[in-house]
Structure prediction request, 742 residues.
Amino acid sequence: MAAIGSIRKHGVLMMIVIGFALVLFLLTGLFDGNTLNRFIHGDQYTRGKIDGQYVDERYATLYEELTVLYKILNDKNTLEEAETYFIHELTWEQLLTEITLNKEFESLGIIYTDEAIEVIMDEVFATLSTQQPNNYLIGYYSYLAKMRGEEFAQQVLMSIRDLKDQPDYADLYYMYKVIQDRIVFESKMNTYRGFAMGTMNFSDELAKKIATENKTMTAQLMSINPQHASFAEIDATVSEKEMKNWYNENKFRYNNLVETRDIDIALFPIIPTNTDKQNIENEIREKFENLQSTTLDSFNRAQMFQIVDSSYHKAGSNLIVNTTNGYIALDVIDTLEKIIFNSAPGDYIEPYNHEDQIWFYGQTFGTAQRSDSILVALLFVDYKSQQNPNGTRTKKEARLEADSVKNVILNGEASVFELLPNYLGGRNATDTTLWISEDDFRGNIDLYSNLLETPVGGVYVENNKATAYNIFQVLAKTDPIIKKQYALYAADIIASDETINSLRSQAQQLASASSTTEEFHTEANNAGVQVMNGNAITPMATSINQMPGFRSVVYWAFNENTAKNAVSDIFKLDNGYFAVATVVEKHPQGTPKFEDVKDAISAEMTHIKKVELVKEKIAAEIAAGKSMKDVASAYGSIVMDSVKMTYLGEQGQNRGVDNGATGEMFAKSSNNGVQTIAGKDNVYVFAAGSVVDGAQPSETLQQEKFLLRNIFSGRGMRNEYMVITGLRKNIEILDNRGRLIP
Prediction:
């Protein structure tokens, strides 16, 4: 009764709650999850919004496509963290460009129809017969060839556009569509860039002026770094008023295209202590003593290692290490390889510490002069089995036929190539000739040894397969070289569990004792902990200060619940650190406040002023009678004679002299004597020699206008960047990925 009374008492509230629940239920049926989420939370949980378009679904699809494309082009099955987030950035960039270009194309009345796309792809396929084939198609071909052979790759590539509705080729056709979409996207970019560049016009008068004023000069030149120790006493300072004036005139230069964070991170490197290193060495030496007191086979069994690898190894090949989980191939270590190849069979490989990172030890047990590779032609006599249900022979019949084929080849009645069409075992091939390397046959060393013992021209039948008898005719062998058999064992020099727990405890203590950025720095300083400063970190960053592995820290810093001055819990990073982080500053998207960029302005203005003061000092020394060589010797520079410079040349063509300083040099080239100029980063001292006026304008002025176009818009990728970035300024962009993608 009390419960009923309570329900009556709160009846109105209950009806509101039930009604709201019914509304949500109905909305769930009417809208998809994303739409309902936006209805409840607004754009808070939207991954991205560009020019009013929600892009979550397109983003997910495009990310999957670009991941497939990346794997094809880079021959990878799995991706590292940095590669994953590179694809995230590529996805976002393509989405931004797609939407901005589509908007422009719509205004121009340009439509990419299916027929237009087919024309684009026809042109791309035509490149396969040229010396510069399309990179995407070549990458696809290589992927197919590795998977099923070159003949299969050729067949698929030539008929791929006809395989659209064939279920057996659905995955391959999907990959092709991914490549096609990327090619069409790049075609759109090129088309629009062509339009944009085509609208840039220059007058004939300006073109003629450029031709006549494009002078060249030969000069003596030296560059002086204003940060040289000799200028340490020069104190360049700027006032608050100067910085504010600079900010008001240049604030656009500091615009944040995306919101960023300044993140300080206390790092606890997980590295072994001296005690850890000594314990590991003691363990290795104990195992080495055990190896010396028994046989290799007994040692492997006692240590639960894999059986001894009986393969022969050549110098320069990977080092093969025996472990409890199998064999590991490591890059060659020169010192260790010399130890192995200077040993006689039965010699022990004394414990060897490589760069304080890994211990090696082992034993050699064989030496031989052996061919490293064998050229064979291969036939297959298949038979019916559980693995090959479509076979037409019994195993006994296949054995008899294999022996018969062997005799036919050896008696010279038919060559292996004449027999090939009848003995492919269901395979689709026109040639089964291949070089077999001993390294490639480590898992089947008996087969390699049998082929090695078979003379050139001889035939060997492999009879341990579950589907066929494989017939090998040996066609050639490489010249014998010295090869070694060895058993090699290794142990990483890593931190012990005790050390790891101690570091974790230190990190936890810092995190627990700090609730603000100020406390974080105080505690870290008192504990002598290294703190790394990460400035202007973007939402999708995976590295900080070029150190990889910090994605979890960045994701935390951009979480909506992480405030400025917040201090994190401890992170266990894949790059071998425990870490504790604090958000020092949040920089919103758009124009920053003066206080947010005050330090950057101070640094830039101080640098500019110091360059000017250094210039004045050097100019005074030269006026007092010092030669260029005297100045160069005093300030760690050299005098370059007969330096050729071009008025309109780019910086790289003018010995690194920035364009502003180059222009000033030419303006003063008629003056006599040594002159001093303040550049962007350096002070330049020069003495002009001969100056040659520009050439007469060409008849059509095309050359001059091309030069003007390069001057005003840059070249290559700079053109593309300017055009696309300019378009983006006119659209609204919401990027929440940093908060929603861990």
Q: What stands out?
A: The CA atoms of residues 407 and 413 lie 9 Å apart. The two ends are 51 Å apart (CA to CA).
